[in-house]
From TrEMBL:
Residues 476-677 form the Cytochrome oxidase subunit I profile domain. PANTHER family: CYTOCHROME B SUBUNIT OF NITRIC OXIDE REDUCTASE, CYTOCHROME C OXIDASE SUBUNIT 1. This is Cbb3-type cytochrome c oxidase subunit I. One of its GO terms (cellular component) is membrane. It comes from Halococcus dombrowskii.
Amino acid sequence: MDVTRKTLAKILVVVFVANLVVMGAGALYSYQNAPPIPQEVVGPDGQTIATDERIQAGKATFQSNGLMNHGSILGNGAYFGVDFTADALDLKTQYMQEYYANERRGRSYRSLPDARQAAIDSRVTNELDTDYDGGPVEYSAAELFAHRQVREEYVDRYANGARERGVPAGMIENPEDARRFADFALWTAWVSHTDRPGADYSYTNNWPYNPVAGNVPAGPTVVWSAVAMVLLIAGAGIGVWLYHSIELAEPEIAGIDIPDPREVDLLPSQRAATRYIPIAALLFVVQVLFGALLAHYYVERDGFFGLGDLLGIDILQWLPFAISKTYHLDLAILWVATLWIGAGLFLPGLLTGHEPDHQRTLVNVLLGALVVVVVGGFVGVWLGFKGVIGTDNPLWWILGNEGLEYVEVGRLWQFGLLLGFVLWTILLYRGFKPMLDRESRYGLAHMIIYAGGSIGLLFVAGVLYTPQTNMVMTEFWRWWVVHMWVEGSFEFFIVAVIGITLVSMGLLEKRSAEKAVMLQALFVMGSGVIGASHHYWWVGLPDVWIPFGSIFSTLELIPLILILFEALGQYRALATSDESFAYRLPFMFIIASGAWNFLGAGVLGFFINLPMINYYEHGTYMTVAHAHAAMFGAFGFLALGMAVYMLRLTVDPDRWNERRLQWAFWLWNAGLAIMVLISLLPIGFLQLETAFTQGYDAARSLAFYNGDLVQLLFWARFPGDMLLILGTIVFAYDVIRKRFVLRETSTPDETPGGTIPDRILAEDDD
């Protein structure tokens, strides 16, 4: 079956518009059905316990102090600390049990016989598993007692500090702020056990699992898990059928003319673009070092091999987990994005031989602007964590720490990044202008512009909420930024960059690459955008997202199967090559990216996205395994492969040596495999079992993490971490060395030319 590029382009437009309609309508429906923040919470005598203003102030405290990168809320955030929703709910039930045990028997709950405990449990369940029809929330005496006890528990932990939990003193600056934060956490617990109007399950679809609170899997969770399993089989079959039915050319090395690096002109803007590589390499080194510190915090929560005592520095106080996690996450995004930006600026001149006026200057300006924004954002995060720009300053979320996972930096710095993406897209357009003028709107250069522009466009969703926005809707928009990037724009950009890179290597015709890019973009957009709604199942959004998330998350398997087949095809092409193939190493990175994408996003991603599995797994190490394999494996390896490709074309061919880069490649692959398969995944399975047998809060408890087997698995991660760190240091060293052996640039003639441009611009694209 031969599908034309024009047909694919039309279908892609239809799918894109359909996605916007579904997600736009879903946003409106979600606003209308978001869980309420009651104006008042009152005790049995009518006294005011909490207000909507206190709850929202607690949300601001949660964000400004970076608590989302210490623990999680509604299952989203970091996994070092507790999930605050599950923790508040569990503490609430425990204190209610103690209240009734003492009231009725004058004894502790644990000392009562099973029958008495069961009677108390039944009463607690009946009190918590209730409806809400507006007005003040009315507490029983037991709930009032529990609420006050949770407040003081949070003061002890987060204001006074709890080193055994890895919490430094003054993490929340004062006790009253800690009490407001407790009010916010208890509101999310209330949302989790209070039935949604007209339903027999809560606003969070009965998550987290806590039978005493009445939280057990709801009917839709079970039904749509069964539907997802049926779709899994169908999706796999459709993926295989499409791969064998649609005629797409595969890379071919044997018997074709592959441009030698000596024959490729190096333009001034391309050489400027290579400056992004050492910057990214240094960011990468710092990022993996922070990762090692984070991993060690799980086995020594208040130190680092005694180094703090030796130097007289309280590491936990100066570099707590939350700050380290924030920098680790943001640096991961930054070094990948830096390499992608550099590759995007390098490829236009390679394919067109065209150097727009002042392009080199603008490339350097963009790099300088990004450095300013990154430094400003990181300083703002630090000042926010340390309370210098706290919630008493109305600009705390503008200049300081906005405090939401993956979008931590203040809003001003986020606007700076957005402007950077806009400038980058303009530079892409200027560089690709000769191709854009010659090809149709569904040509390869157009695809790169669309993909680059969509990365910036989705970032706009990050300005659709403020600290005053209901946390549930905040999470709705945050996932637009975070996972629609990953499952939409980034995937689109990946296939476009791979396609254009294979064309520049001479391994694919431009027309074949265009068709492949549009086909994969069609499936990525068709499944990944709406599929991002699997993040909405347990955060308080309407239950309509369960069928949407189940169906489309399952269909995401189709493009990942195609990516796997593509990687296998690329491997076959590589196997037919000999040592004379100049781009063997960057080609290996492209293959590794496809393989890790299938494992991380495909195998692990599908497993944790089954609603019934995700109900117990949400916010556990299964997600950590999926995220590391998908993020570094797929996006990281592609970015590194593009960096190696850029180096291959810019380093003096007579002085090219890739031995160290090969070492880095295999160290990264081995380290990631050990980390994911030997440590993260087994811990995730143990957490899944604990959540199922003992309750979700137990799976996120300090007792679980301090268990002997779990601690052993934490230590088992360290060899993988060391290999990753070593590979990154080798890469950074090699990149810096190669800066001293770059080729001289050449000034292009008035008419674009060169080995690659002559072939590409001569193609008939009608």
